[in-house]
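Practice problem. Given the sequence and the SMILES for adenosine-5'-triphosphate, write out the predicted structure.
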Amino acid sequence: MTMSADTMIDICNLSVTFNRGRKPVKAVNGVSLSVRPGEVVALLGESGSGKSVTMRSLLRLHPKGTKIEGSMTVAGRDVMGLSAGELGALRGAVVSMVFQEPRLALDPVYTLGSQIEETIMRHEKISRKAAAARALALFQKVRIPSAERRLRNYPHEMSGGMLQRSMIAMALACNPKVLLADEPTTALDATVQIQILLLIRELQKEYGLSVIFVTHDIGVAAEVADRIAVMYAGRIVEEGRVADIIRDPRHPYTKGLLGARVELAHGRDRLVTIPGAPPDLAAMPPGCAFAPRCPQASEGCLSEVPALLAAGEATRVACVQYA
Ligand SMILES: Nc1ncnc2c1ncn2[C@@H]1O[C@H](COP(=O)(O)OP(=O)(O)OP(=O)(O)O)[C@@H](O)[C@H]1O
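Answer key:
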């Protein structure tokens, strides 16, 4: 499959079904999304909406027995057609990941410096000395103070924010084209969270990275992304440019997420959430998955799944109101 010049990531009609329990669970259901070179797309939605599963599919990081349907290309590679070895080569060198909990992604018994060096040496023919010099430059790039000394630290000797900076340094070590970020700031304090978001945005611009950024926080999505894709129960329900989504949300679910955020910003004493809960993915209702919680639902919503259709210049929305 060839990549057109203006897409770095192309996900086409992706469905992912897990077969672990008694009933198969379709965690992702017909998702199509593309990311241009140098573009940041946020996948936004509540826990369990399929954001991480969508993102992890790009490196086929699912347990054995998981059914993946559809097609995906990343930097011109047909992901479903890659061998395990080719996937390994893609990971780290072309596509890097940053996770919510860096401690789980790092090895506690090696220093941060040696882990970065190993990452570089796994993908490139390079001496340890040259790899060490690159590790130092990376630590300085992500603005870790006393970088030389910090490289000799073990993960447990670093704060959460500094550890996430180390992870970002490691993710950039082999000059990837794509960064996949799964809630990388969720576990951090608010002020550290902002610093890390700004750092990611700055490095993304400098390196021209394409980024998929998973978050449940519409404020974080607005801060970091060019475009937002809102997911609900395994589908994209709305997708468009950040400014359009924030100024003129169309889907009642997006409006709900934005409403919750506005309430928070006005210092109300509790987090206002959308009443109700997402459906059980193993027993999906017919029709629009959001209908049972939707203040605007009509009878038709309970029988037919709305298609994701163009609404306005650059927005797509899956709601009968705009069909
Ligand atoms: N390996 C797995 N086996 C079975 N079910 C899974 C597996 N991974 C994810 N799921 C299920 O798929 C659904 C979507 O999960 P996913 O992690 O993508 O959600 P999410 O939107 O990223 O939410 P979160 O913020 O909680 O990560 C969930 O119901 C989850 O339980």
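Check your answer against the key. The longest strand covers residues 25-35.
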